[in-house]
Structure formats: C-alpha cells, structure tokens
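Technical annex, item 7. During the second reporting period the consortium partners agreed on a shared format for inverse folding records so that results from different sites could be compared directly. Each record opens with the tokenized structure and is followed by the designed sequence. A conforming record, contributed by the partner at site C, is shown below for reference.
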C-alpha cells in the first residue's frame, strides 16, 4: 500500500514540477521574448525591411561571412535564443547551417560579451574562477575562446550546408524517380 501512495505522490509531483517550470517560463523568458521579438520587428520596420534584407543579403552572399559575421551579429545583438530569428533573412536551404553555426557560438561569446548568453555565464564563471586562482589573466583566454568559437561556427556552418545540400539533392532525385 505504501508503494501505491509513493507512486501516486510521485506521479502528481511530476505534474506539479512541470507546472512550476511552466510558470517560470510564463513569468520569465516568454514575456522577455515577446518584447524582444516586438522590438526587433519594430526596428526592422523603422529601418525598412528592404534595407535590412539588403544588408543581410550582402552579409550572407559569401559563405565565410554567412557563417562568421552574420551569426556573430545575430548572437551579439539579439542574444540567445532570439539570435536564431536572423535565419529569416536566408533562403530555406541555408537556414539549418545558420542555426548550427549560431547555436555553436552562444557559449564562446560569453567570455567577452556576457550579455549574449547570460544563462551560460555560470560555465564561464567556473572557468574564470580557476584561471584567476592561478593568478592568470582572463583576457587572453576569453579572446582565444571567441576566436575558436568563430572557427568552429564556420566549420559547422560549412559542414551543415554541405549535408543539407546533399539531402536536398537526394530528396529531389528520389521524387523524380518516384514520379517516373
């Protein structure tokens, strides 16, 4: 009988915890995201969607800029998780690679620009504590972390774009053969 009571309490406890998590989202990140989305959309309207699209097209014309500068700007200005909305300026086939490059950069930027991903600041602070206890400066580490992050986001963007292109070509071939 005690087993049944423990099981029932655990079952209800799971939903209570889920409710607490949901309320945390409703009172925390969701309002911030709604306001941030509204502000970004208003800024785009103010600047002019044509100008923003033109800038994005220039910035993403070359793969090196598409997977370094563009994700950097997205993460720096919009922070995590809003930075992924910059993908709206890319063609569908490049969106997965942009997302992959941006998501790989939300942590390396934290050392120099903690506003970009405050949720991951505890990781950087843990590393920083160890470095400062050794009497070393954090500047060189933060800079190296940023540079390696840019290199990794470039590699991940290129690899994901290649994989996406292959998958799209395979899908097109398979749909052509199924039609014939």
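Designed sequence (site C submission):
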């Amino acid at each position: 009988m005690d087993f049944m009571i423990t099981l029932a309490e655990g079952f209800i406890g799971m939903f209570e915890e889920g409710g607490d998590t949901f309320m945390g989202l409703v009172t925390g990140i969701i309002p911030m995201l709604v306001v941030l989305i509204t502000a970004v959309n208003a800024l785009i309207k103010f600047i002019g969607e044509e100008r923003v699209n033109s800038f994005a097209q220039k910035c993403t014309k070359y793969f090196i800029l598409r997977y370094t500068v563009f994700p950097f700007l997205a993460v720096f200005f919009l922070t995590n998780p809003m930075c992924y909305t910059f993908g709206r300026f890319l063609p569908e086939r490049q969106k997965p690679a942009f997302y992959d490059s941006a998501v790989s950069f939300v942590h390396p930027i934290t050392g120099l620009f903690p506003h970009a991903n405050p949720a991951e600041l505890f990781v950087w602070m843990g590393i920083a504590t160890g470095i400062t206890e050794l009497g070393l400066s954090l500047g060189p580490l933060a800079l190296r972390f940023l540079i390696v992050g840019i290199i990794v986001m470039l590699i991940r963007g290129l690899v994901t774009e290649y994989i996406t292109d292959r998958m799209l070509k395979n899908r097109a071939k398979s749909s052509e053969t199924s039609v014939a």
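Residues 138-179 form the longest helix (42 residues). The two ends are 65 Å apart (CA to CA). All partners now use this format for quarterly exchanges.
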